[in-house]
Design goal:
single chain; 172 residues; mainly alpha
């Protein structure tokens, strides 16, 4: 008898009629995300690390050491994606649960979440654009402009999170 037949319980005997199969068990209740008193501090630490890495990218650009930019961009992208994942899975999910009875704050939180994720996508697009770049002279000028624009977006995102969203977590 084949491996998959054994695995799925087919031993060659006729199968039982579908009517004698046990009723499917109900879907498990959705898991609740519990409050983590260390989450906000961890996310603030992420912000500091992201700021440091992003500044190092700018320093390399100003110094003309473009060979240093690619690994820094990859490190930055990896750190940002990990932060956004944590934020989406632990922070926003907890807020959704705790604000379920507060439609106005829940709506504000959802709007911020959409905006923050859009900004994160823009930052990741910037990184993807330049992580494989050869930095010819015209690309260097474009990089400097894009770096400044992304820096403003990133600053806006982090400030909004720290000022408007993180207090919602600690109040709940």
């Amino acid at each position: 008898m084949g491996f998959f037949r054994k695995l799925f319980g087919h031993d060659g005997t006729p199968s039982t009629p579908a009517t004698s199969m046990p009723a499917p068990s109900p879907a498990p209740a959705p898991r609740r995300v519990s409050y983590d008193p260390n989450l906000i501090q961890s996310m603030l630490n992420d912000h500091a690390q992201l700021g440091q890495i992003f500044s190092r990218v700018g320093d390399a650009q100003k110094a003309g050491t473009y060979s240093e930019i690619r690994p820094l961009l990859i490190q930055f992208k990896s750190r940002l994606e990990a932060h956004v994942l944590t934020e989406n899975v632990r922070f926003y999910t907890y807020l959704e649960q705790s604000l379920a009875g507060d439609p106005s704050n829940a709506a504000v939180m959802h709007d911020f979440r959409r905006e923050m994720n859009a900004i994160a996508r823009g930052v990741v697009d910037f990184v993807k654009k330049y992580q494989a770049c050869g930095f010819a002279p015209e690309q260097r000028r474009e990089f400097a402009d894009d770096y400044a624009a992304v820096g403003k977006l990133l600053e806006q995102r982090l400030d909004n999170e720290e000022t408007n969203l993180y207090p919602l977590y600690t109040l709940n």
